[in-house]
Amino acid sequence: MSNQNGYLGRSPGDSAVIIASQTFEPTGIQTDFTFAAGYTVGYMDVYLNGARLIYANDYVASDGSTVGLTSVANSGDVLELVAYKAFNVGNVDAANGNFNVGSNLTVVGHTTATTAYYTGIVTASSFSGDGSGLTGVASTDNIITGTAVTITNTTNSTSTTTGALIVSGGVGVALSMTVGGSLSVGGTITYEDVTNQDVLGLSTFRSGVQFGVAGVGGTIRANGDTTLAGVVTATSFYDSSGVALANTAHVSTTGLVVVGVSTLSGNVQIPDSTSLYLGNDDDLELFHTAGGNTYIKNNTGELEIRGNTTKIFNKSSSQTIAGFTQGASVGITTVGILTAYSDVAIGVGATIHASSGNAVFAGIVTATTLKYGTTSVETAIDAKASTGKAIAMAMVFGF
After folding, report:
1. Least confident range of 26-30, 78-82, 338-342
2. pLDDT for residue 2
3. Do 35 and 22 form a contact (C-beta atoms < 8 A)?
4. Are 263 and 269 in contact (CB under 8 A)?
5. How far, in Å, CA of 390 to CA of 399, rounded?
6. CA 378, 379, 382 angle in degrees (round to 5)?
7. How far is CA 281 from CA 112, 141, 143, 341, in A?
């Protein structure tokens, strides 16, 4: 059993001879028998009913597994196969049966096997092959590959413990990630240096949205209240009922600043006892008290009413109180008493003095009735007919 390595007899590296035997008891006519432990060709003895058979004459054992008899064995015969095995621990090149290693196994070079089963941990600096036949690698600490990893399982994920790929820890992605289905995040999504966010569907923000650091540019709150620090530009605005802002019945605000032109198609109402100011310094004021007077006050400069023809009407516009026409007459209509608080000068022909009531006329005074106090002038002359005063009064008034 030298294994042809330069030694006569057993090699010093060989261990003690190991004998393996197997007994067969055929139930009928049989010539071929399979030795379960395998054998080395030339190291097999065959015994039939206790008698040792001669190789080549009585049997053939040439494939390391099967022993064939040249004559048949019948029912009642006993066939024993005995194999002699020399084992060199320094040079194992074959094992026809199971090969068990009680401690560590170090292999220098490649290990080739049809199937390998490991119940413990397999550690290697690298693995070769496409890995298409690997199963049960869920407990591997690190899987590093230079090519794309394809997972063909199509199980949909409905929680953190379902789906084709289940990761118990965090996931770090250095480049882009594309999600073909829905993305559900149970925690907080933090964006760092995001330039653009393209959302094709609906985005729901349950606590609100802040613009700028800590909402310095504006905030949209969860209840819909919105505060914006800058300018809001839009083609149109609508209220909660879907009505455009231009048709909104009420716009409530503490201050409304319009930079351009405002066109109002309806009335402008200002509450009682509230002023309407015009000018940067509130130069012109329009004020109305509740059920009382209304005034227009110019706080700086002159108050001018311009027009070639200007008229003042009563409340119902049924009567002209005063009229002013450029280059023509000035008319004042009154049903009662016309009160002037200072002298009234009519051209250069007449003057009525406010303090004394005296009237001075440069021309002719024509009237249907002239009174002296409360008495008509004509009656007064008749009463003074016997005196010289009557003659003087008649001369003055032309009687």
Report:
1. 338-342
2. 44
3. yes
4. no
5. 10
6. 90
7. 98, 77, 77, 32
